[in-house]
Amino acid sequence: MHRLFFWIRFLSVFIFFNAVILSICLIYILWKFSPELPSYDNIKNYKPNLSSRVYTSDGMLLEKFYIQERIFIPINRIPKDLINAFLAAEDKKFYSHYGIDIIAIFRATFTNIINFFSSKKLIGASTITQQVVKNLLLSSDVSFERKIKEIILAIRIENILSKDQILELYLNDIYLGYGSYGVGSASLNYFNKSINELQIHEIAFLAALPKAPNNYNPKINYDEALARRNWVINKMYQNDFISEIKLHSKKLPIIIKERYESNFTSAKYFNEEIRKYLYKEYGKEKLYSDGLIIKTTIDTDLQAIAEKVLFDGLIKYDRRQGWRGVIDNLDFPISSKDFNNKMFNNPFPKKWNIVQINNIANNILFASDKNEKKFKIDLSIDENLWLKNKKFQLGDLIFIEKKNKLNLIHQLPEVNGAIVVLNPHNGDILALTGGISFELSEFNRATQAKRQPGSAFKPFVYITALKEGYNPSTLVLDAPYVVDQGPGLPKWKPANYTEEFYGLNTMRTGIEKSRNLMTIRLADKIGMKKILLTAKDFKINEYIDNKLSMALGSGLVRLIDITNAYGMIANGGKEIYPNMIKSIYSKEGKKILHNEIKHCINCKLKTIDIKNSPLPEIKIQQKEVLDNKIAYQIVSMLEGVVIRGTGRKLSELNIPIAGKTGTTNDNKDAWFIGFTPDLVIGVYVGHDKPKSLGFKQTGSSVAVPIFKSFIKEADINNSRVPFRIPSGLSFVKIDPKTGLQSNKEDSILEPFILGNEPFNMNSLNILDALGTINNDSISGTGSLLEN
User: Fold this and answer.
1) Rounded Cα distance, 361 and 380, in Å
2) Phi and psi at residue 285, in whole multiples of 5°?
3) Strand partners, 399
4) In terms of residue numbers, what domain contains 600?
5) Does 90 qualify as catalytic in the annotation?
6) Which are the contacts of 526, defined by CB distance < 8 A and separation ≥ 6?
C-alpha cells in the first residue's frame, strides 16, 4: 500500500512538473511569436480577388479578366455533397476540433519519424483551419517557426469565426489547378458545369486536388488522378457521407470537358476593346480583382459568322494575287522542335496544319506534320488549281487545310481587313473583328485604323444636297472639272473610275454609279462647309478638312464610325453611338452601368394611387440628326446602288439592302457599308502599309463579296421586311436617264418630299455646268446642255 502511494505521488509530481514545463514552453512560444504574428483582420475582412466576367448579349461567357480566377460562392449555396467530400479528404473532424487536431498531429509525428528513416513521403496533419491560415496569412515555407505560428493563428481564428465562415473561406480560396481558385471556377474549368450540376464522381475529383493539384491533373497523370479520386469516394462512404449505390461511381472515368469559351475565340479584337475601356474607366484593381459582371452587345452567332466570312474573303482575295512561295525548305525529316519554331508560326492551328513535303509523284504531294501524321495533297483538284504550274520540292514546308476529306494548300495573306455589324436602332455592336488574326497582329482595323473611305463618303455629300432642297432626280453634269491649286502646283483634274464622261445624269444615277465628277460638282455648288456640318452630325468629321477633294472620301475615317454613320441613315436620321456594353454589375449585383436609349417614365413613383397615378410609359430618347423624309430619300438612292449600281452583285439576294462601295486611289482600300432595315454591316479590306490591292480590286470586287457572304451565312435573306417609309413623302415615276416623269417600264418610283415633287411631265431640276440650280419647266433637255 505504501509502495502504491509512493508511485501515485511520484506520477502526480511528474505530471505537475511536466505541466509547469509545458506551460512555461507555451508561454515562451506565445511571448516569442505573438509579436511577429500577422493581423488576422485579413481574414475577418476577407476580400478575395475575383474574376471579372464578360458575357455576350445571349449569355455566353466571352472573356475573363483576373489575377486569380475565382468565383466566390457563399457557403449556403455550396452543395452538401461537395462540402462533405472536402471534409472526408482533408479534415473529417473539422466541426469538432478547435483549430488543430492533436491526435492527428501526434499520429503524423510518429508516422513521419518512421517514414524519415525509411525514405518514404512525409505526411501532414493540417486542419482546414490551418490551411486557411497558411493560405491567407502566412507563407508556404516549411519550417518549425511557421508551423507554430500556424497553430496559434488557427486556434485564434476558431474563436472569431464560425465553422461555416472558415469553410467558406477555404472552399473559395483553395487552389485546385487549371488556374482555378475555389470550387466555383474549378467546377467550370474541369467540367464546364456549375457546382450544383456536379455528380459524386466529379465532386470527389475536386476534393482530391488540394494536396497536389498538378500531380492529379488527369490529362497528365490519369492513373494517379483516378486513384486519388476513388480514395476520396471511399472516404466519403466510410464517413457515411454517401450511400453504397454512390460508391459505385468509382467505376466512372474522369472526363474533362472543354469549356464553351475555349472554343469561342473569335472575339479577341472585341474583348481587347472591352478590356481597354474597363481599364480606363474603372482602373486595374476593379477590372482584375472586383468580380465585375459585364454584359456586352455581341451576338454569339453573328460574331462567329463575321469572323468566318472575313477570314474566307481575305483568303480568296489573296489566292487571286498568286502564290508567293513556301514557308521554308529544310532537310527532312525535321523534328517536332523544329516544327514548333516561332519562325514557323501557325496563327490558325484549329484550321490549318504545317506539313513538310517528303515525296512528289506527278500532281500528288506526300507530306507529314510534327506528329508524323501523313497527308496526301492533290494539286489537280479545283481548290488547288490556283497553284497550277507551281513547282514544289522535297523538304518544303507549307500550310494545308483538311476540307471535305481533301487537303488544300494555303499561304498567309498579306492583306487584312475588318467587319463591324451594328444595330441601327440603338448603336449596339453585334459583331466586330479587327483583322484576320489577333495572334498575328493586335492592331484593330475596325477601331484603330484611320483610312480614306473613298466613295463610301459620298452619301453624306448627297444628304447635304437633299437638305438644300435638291431631290434624287436633280440633274447634275458629268463633265471635265479642273481646279487651279495655285502657283507652282499642277491643276487638279478629278476623274471617274472609268475615266469617261456621261453628261447630265440624275443625282440617283450619280450615287448608284459612283460618279466622281458629279459628286465634285455637287460639293462645289453646296460648299464643303455644309458637307462638313453634315459629317459632324453623323460623327465622321474628326479627320476631314475643308477641301473639295474630301467630297470624294480623301479624309480619314474609322470603320466603326462610318458604319455607325450609315446606321443613322438606316434608322431614319436618329442619333446613335457605337455601343459595346449593355450593362455592368458589381459582384454584389449592384448596377454600375446600364446603356439603354429606352427610358421608362413613371416607373419609379414613391407612392402609387391606382386611380390617379400616371401609367408607365416607355420613351426612346434620341436626337434627330436628319429629317426622316430625307433619310428615306438617301436610303432609296442607296438601294439603287445594290439594284443597278456598284453593289449590284447583291441584287440576287432579293432582299431590301442599301449601301455604298468605296475604293481609294490606286485601289489601296476597298469598302462596302451596307444595311438592311435592322442591321448595318461595314466591311473594310486593305494593307496595313497602304499599297494597291491590284488591278480592278475595288470595293465592288473585294468588300462586297464578304458582305454578301455575311448576309447568306446569317440567313438574313429570309427577311423581306422593306425599309420603313415615313409620312410626308410623295412617290413619282421618274425616267432615270432624263429625270422627267415617265410611265416607261424602266421608270423608278422616286420619293419626293411633299411640295417638292415635279408638277408636270416636263418638270426638270438641273444643276448646270456652272453650278447654277435651275427649276424651269422646259421641253426635253433644251438648250441647257449648251450653257
Assistant:
1) 12
2) -65, -45
3) 354, 410
4) 590-618
5) yes
6) 461, 464, 465, 468
Q: Which residue in the list 69, 90, 168, 261 is annotated as catalytic? A: 90
How sure is the predictor about 745, in pLDDT bands with cuts at 50, 70 and 90? Answer: confident
pLDDT digits (tens, 9 = 90+) for 224-279: 999 999 999 999 999 999 898 898 898 999 998 866 555 455 799 999 999 999 99
Quick check: is 437 in a domain?
no
**Paired residues of 376 in beta bridges:** 366
From 193, 228, 263, the end of a domain falls on 263
Going from the C-alpha of 117 to that of each of 111, 513, 700, the distances in angstroms are 10, 92, 81
Radius of gyration for the alpha carbons in the chain, expressed in angstroms and rounded: 37
Is there a single domain that holds both residue 614 and residue 629? no
In tens, the pLDDT along 302-347 reads: 999 999 999 999 999 999 999 999 998 888 777 766 666 656 678 8
**How many Cβ atoms sit within 10 Å of the Cβ of residue 231?**
16
Model confidence at 31, in pLDDT bands (50, 70, 90)? very low
Same domain, 144 and 176: yes
Pair (672, 780) in one structural domain: no
| Partner residues linked to 681 by β-bridges | 421, 674
Q: How many CA atoms lie within 13 A of 410 on its CB side?
A: 26
Give the DSSP letter of residue 656: -
- pTM across the whole model: 0.84
Within a domain: 6: no
Spot the catalytic one: 455, 473, 700, 701.
455
Please state whether the peptide bond connecting residue 333 to the residue before it is cis, i.e. omega within 30 degrees of 0.
Answer: yes
